[in-house]
Each structure stands twice: as structure tokens, then as C-alpha cells.
Specification:
The chain is α+β, with helices and mostly antiparallel strands. Helices cover 52% and strands 7% of the residues. The chain has one domain: Orthogonal Bundle (Cytochrome p450). The relative contact order is 0.15. The N terminus and C terminus are likely disordered. It binds protoporphyrin IX containing FE (HEM).
Length: 569
């Protein structure tokens, strides 16, 4: 600056001229680039789709600046209202297309071609590597084929023991909150990680040392960092993120997480080989999932959700009446190690670690949010809670016995409540895919160009008046058989659908029933917050920014009076 001031007026004029020329050349180059881009097929197809007005270069990115995740969620809802069921948004040169019409959603989700995850999933990579959630192509296909059977109903039935034990443990912990307002999500998160440690890695409470607790804490904190990176736009850039304290924290957390998974895999592998030498070989996946009637399907074990999800055409439709029993219980990790060792699957230790870490992530936050929303809704709608409890009283009376798999089949009203809660508050509120090929959708024959990102607005679809009468109202009867049978399958997709649907769907439903029934048999949940006061955070996992606050009261183990029961119908 001082240099310029000392120079002659003529030199100063030259500098100004050079700056102006440079600016003019740059601006012209940008304009030409912008104009030429607009002429490309990608831009032309993108711009045929309705969406908010754009600014040169920025597209619509300025609309997201300075907004927190709740405000971005509100904006997305406003766009969905203002534009059609197909809306485009440009974030600079990146094209995002939002779909909320089940016919269009089916075109994407039911396809075996459009299965690649959007770039937004990349923050998981340091943690989950190429695990099932983010992998693509042949790797995803072969691992999915290997992992889907480890969620066979026979294996899930053998998890009833840990589901019950951990649910009873959390009930004991929650007693200390009696009569106070507290955030129930903290408890749901803790119990979910404990259950996963046991069912995914085979680490029981008895075998768990401090590393199990540290792992659980690290999983929860990693989820928080990833959530932050989704809504704090500047943290999305690795080059910036690396200079923040979050990055240092992430390194520490990943050391804990990967340290434990690696250690457990090593120990389990050693144990397996030692047992093999002694001639003790665990049952194979094929043996555990063998069907008694040959076709693997048994109508007696079908639940309401099996019927609700039957049109979604995934690879989880197996059912069997064989009960493998407690003795044969194997965690996912054991099953993967066993199949790698006996040669039925070609999977390395690193890949096994990535899959176990993936299951720990996917199975944790989703069910913690899902169970917290159910409890908060029941705390608001007492008459629904009364009906749920009456059903539980019919099954268990005033006994304290643990739930059996058979009991869960009788929890029909509770199941409707869970499904309705997943409809109004889907834990995964949106699903994103990267398109590698152009796709023609049903609405107005729009062609979504290769290279764009498709965002499926589950939250919005679930609240469509076209499929639900009074769509914003909490009404478990939306899932009465007569109301579900003719509804578009893709109008209810909390677990996504098609070949890339949630592999833990049946696990989640079974666990939610055991956990929620145990809590509700012990406590009555109450809240003075009404549903319209819930503030939502539209992150990768839907949460309440105001916290999942409620109160618990001791449950009187008696059914409601006939008058109360009548009122609640
Ligand atoms: C209420 C609970 C749950 C909900 C709402 C849910 C929802 C979902 C959704 C929507 C997807 C697709 C995500 C996408 O395409 O971006 C998904 C994928 C997945 N989920 Fe879940 N999930 C739940 C529980 C679980 C549990 C308990 C596990 C495991 C124990 C699990 C394991 C997975 C895995 C491994 C994938 C990736 C599947 C693939 O890409 O092939 N989920 N989940």
C-alpha cells in the first residue's frame, strides 16, 4: 500500500487500468464458461426441471448460507410445497434433484443400476471404509449377498436374549430419572450401542471391559462430528476440516473405534482357530438359516411390517419357524469370520472390520432416534399409550417375564404405533443417489441427467395427503390392514426400498418391540410438550433440536378401566 502511495499519478493510473482489464477479462471468461455450460445437455436437462431462481456461478448455494440444519429443512419443505414433486437446486455446478412422488421414487430405488451413493456420504469413509453403506459396484453386490443372510429371522430370534437383558438394564438406569424431565435419547443411544456390541461383535456385558464403554462413547461422538459436517457447510471441505479441532478429535475417536474392532477380530479369529484344532466348529450360516419347510417362508412368523414392506422387493424376505436357541447364538462378526474361514466367502479382515463398523453406525443412531420418537409421541398421546399398554397387559399380565419372539408377534398395536412414528418422523429423512446414467421418470417425462444427485424426500413423501388422510396427524390406524393394502408401496419407505434397502429392517423392528414393550411395562411416559412444539433437525438422522424430553412415572400393572379403554379407541 505504502509503495503505491509513493508512486507517481501516472504509475497509479496504469495499475488501476491493469486491475480493471484483469477483472474484465476474468468476468468475460466466467460469463462465457457459464453460458457454454448452460448449453450443455446436463444444464439443459437440469434447467427443464422447476426450481428456485439461480444466480450466476452460485446457482442456489446462497440460499443455504448461514442457515442451520432446522432452517435448511424448513427451506427444503418450502421448495417442495412451492415447486412440483420434482424440484431442482443448483449448488454451484452441482445439480440436486428432489423427488417426492412415489412413482418416480420407485424408478430409482427399484433399479439395480442407480445404486451408487451420493458424494455426501464421503465423510463416513475414514470410519467405515468401503463398508456396505457406502461401497458400490461389485464390492457392494458381493458383500450384500454375504451380509443379508446374517439378518435371517433365525439369527434374529437368537438375539431376543440380549434384546431383553439390555432393555431391562436400561429400565433400571432410567429409574433414577423418575418424576424429572430428562432427554430419553441419551438412554436410547446407550442401550442401542450395548445391544449392538453384543449382537454385532459378541462383546457381552460380562466380557466387556472399559474399551467397550470407550467404544460406545466414541461411536456416539463420531456420529455427532459427521452430523456437524453435513450442516456446517465450511466443514464439508477436507482442506478446511483438517485444520479444525473436530479433525483432531476424529483421529482420536477413530483410534478407539478401529482399535477395538481390530482387537476383537484378532481375538475371535484366534479363538476360532483354537476351537477348530479341538474339533469344535460353530454352526455355519447355512445351517443356522436352514428352513424347515424347504422354501424358507412361514406364514406364522409374518408380522404386520412384513406385509407392509412386501412390495418393496428387497432380499430380506426369508422367514423360518426354526428356533436356533440361545446356545447357537452367533454375532455378525462370528458369522463373517466363520464364513471367511470355511471358505464360503472371500472376505479379508479389513473388510470384516469395515462391515462391523458399518453395522455399528447404521444400527445405532437410527434405532436410538426411532425409539425416542415413539416414546415422545406416546408421552403426548395418552390414549394411544393406554391402548399399547392394554395390549401388553393382555400378553404379559402383571408378570415381569422377558418377552419371547412369539410375544412380539402379538404386539400388533405397538407395531402400528412404531410404523406410524416411522412415517411421521423417519429417522433417515432423505436418501441420496448419484446418477451414472440418464433416467426418465414418470412425472412429466423429465429426464434426470447422469452426473446429478437424486434426493428422495422420505419425510415429505410420508406426509402426502394423496396417500394419508390428515397426513400430519399421529394415527396408528394408518397401518390397519385395510388402510395399507391399496396404498402405493413407495409411499412408506422408512427403510428405503429395493436392492439397496436397509439390511437391518427386521432386526430394528424386533429390537424396537422388545425395548419399547419393556420400557412401557415398567413406566408411563408423560410430557407437557405438544407435538407441534417438536423442533426438527433435518440431518442425516432426524432428531429433535429441543431434545427428546419427557417424564417417567411408575406403571401400575393393571389394565385400563373399561371406560378408559373405550375412550382410547
Ligand atoms: C429404525 C431403524 C432403522 C432405519 C429407519 C434404517 C433406515 C435405513 C435406510 C433408509 C437405509 C438406506 C440408506 C441409503 O440408501 O442412504 C439403510 C441402510 C442400511 N441399514 Fe438401516 N435403518 C435402521 C436400522 C438399522 C439397523 C438396526 C441396522 C443393523 C444392525 C442397519 C443396517 C443398515 C445397513 C448395513 C445399510 C446399508 C445397506 C446397503 O447399502 O446395502 N439399519 N437403513
Amino acid at each position: 500500500m505504502s509503495l503505491i502511495l509513493e508512486e507517481s499519478p501516472e504509475t497509479r493510473g496504469n495499475v488501476t487500468r491493469i486491475l480493471l482489464y484483469t477483472f474484465a477479462v476474468l468476468a468475460t471468461a466466467l460469463w462465457i464458461w457459464n453460458h457454454r455450460q448452460k448449453q450443455t445437455r446436463f444444464y439443459k436437462l437440469g434447467n427443464k426441471i422447476p426450481g428456485p431462481d439461480t444466480l450466476p456461478l452460485l446457482g442456489n448455494a446462497h440460499l443455504a448460507l448461514g442457515k442451520n440444519s432446522s432452517e435448511i429443512m424448513a427451506l427444503a419443505m418450502e421448495f417442495a410445497q412451492r415447486f412440483s414433486s420434482v424440484t431442482r437446486v443448483w449448488l454451484g455446478p452441482k445439480l440436486y434433484i428432489f423427488l417426492t412422488e412415489p412413482d418416480d421414487v420407485e424408478v430409482i430405488l427399484n433399479s439395480h443400476v442407480h445404486i451408487d451413493k451420493a458424494e455426501d456420504y464421503k465423510y463416513f469413509e475414514p470410519w467405515l471404509g468401503e463398508g456396505l453403506l457406502i461401497s458400490s459396484g461389485e464390492k457392494w453386490r458381493s458383500h450384500r449377498k454375504m451380509i443379508a443372510p446374517t439378518f435371517h429371522i433365525n439369527i434374529l430370534k437368537s438375539f431376543i436374549g440380549p434384546f431383553n437383558q439390555n432393555s431391562r438394564n436400561v429400565v433400571e438406569k432410567m429409574r433414577r430419572e423418575m418424576g424429572k424431565v430428562f432427554d430419553v435419547h441419551d438412554y436410547m443411544s446407550g442401550v442401542t450401542v450395548d445391544i449392538l456390541l453384543e449382537t454385532a461383535m459378541g462383546i457381552t456385558r460380562e466380557t466387556q471391559d472399559k474399551s467397550g464403554f470407550d467404544y460406545a462413547m466414541a461411536v456416539m461422538k463420531m456420529c455427532e462430528i459427521i452430523h456437524l459436517r453435513h450442516y456446517k457447510l465450511w466443514l464439508r471441505f477436507d482442506s478446511f476440516f483438517k485444520f479444525t479441532s473436530y479433525f483432531k478429535e476424529q483421529i482420536k475417536l477413530l483410534n478407539i473405534i478401529h482399535g477395538l474392532t481390530t482387537k476383537v477380530i484378532k481375538e475371535k479369529k484366534k479363538e476360532y482357530l483354537e476351537n477348530k484344532e479341538k474339533g469344535i466348529i460353530p454352526p455355519t450360516l447355512e445351517e443356522l438359516t436352514k428352513s424347515s419347510n424347504g422354501n424358507g417362508v412361514n406364514g406364522d412368523t409374518k408380522t404386520l411390517s412384513d406385509t407392509v414392506f412386501k412390495g418393496l422387493r428387497d432380499d430380506l424376505d426369508f422367514n423360518d419357524e426354526n428356533d436356533v436357541g440361545e446356545k447357537k447364538r452367533l454375532a455378525f462378526l462370528d458369522l463373517m469370520l466363520e464364513s471367511a474361514q470355511n471358505g464360503s466367502n472371500n472376505i479379508t479382515d479389513t473388510e470384516i472390520k469395515e462391515e462391523v463398523d458399518t453395522i455399528m453406525f447404521e444400527g445405532h443412531d437410527t434405532t436410538a432416534a426411532g425409539s425416542s420418537f415413539v416414546l415422545c409421541l406416546l408421552a403426548v398421546y395418552h390414549e394411544v399409550q393406554t391402548r399399547v399398554y392394554d395390549e401388553l397387559y393382555e400378553i404379559f399380565g402383571d408378570s415381569d417375564r422377558p418377552a419371547t419372539f412369539e410375544d412380539t408377534l402379538h404386539m400388533k398395536y405397538l407395531e402400528r404405533v412404531i410404523l406410524e412414528s416411522l412415517r411421521l418422523y423417519p429417522p433417515v429423512p432423505a436418501i441420496a443417489r448419484k446418477l451414472n446414467q440418464d433416467v426418465k421418470i414418470v412425472t412429466d417425462g423429465f429426464v434426470l441427467p447422469a452426473g446429478s444427485t437424486v434426493v428422495i424426500g422420505t419425510f415429505k413423501i410420508h406426509r402426502s395427503p394423496k396417500f394419508y388422510k390428515n397426513p400430519d396427524e399421529f394415527n396408528p390406524d394408518n397401518f390397519l390392514p385395510e388402510n395399507t393394502q391399496n396404498r402405493h408401496y413407495y409411499s412408506f419407505i422408512p427403510f428405503s426400498a429395493g436392492p439397496r434397502s436397509c439390511v437391518g429392517r427386521k432386526y430394528a423392528m424386533l429390537k424396537l418391540k422388545v425395548l419399547l414393550s419393556t420400557i412401557l411395562r415398567n413406566f408411563r411416559v408423560v410430557s407437557n410438550v405438544t407435538e407441534d412444539q417438536f423442533t426438527l433437525q433435518g440431518d442425516i438422522i432426524l432428531k429433535r433440536t429441543d431434545g427428546f424430553r419427557l417424564k417417567i412415572e411408575p406403571r401400575k400393572r393393571v389394565p385400563s378401566t373399561p371406560y378408559e379403554a373405550e375412550k382410547s379407541v
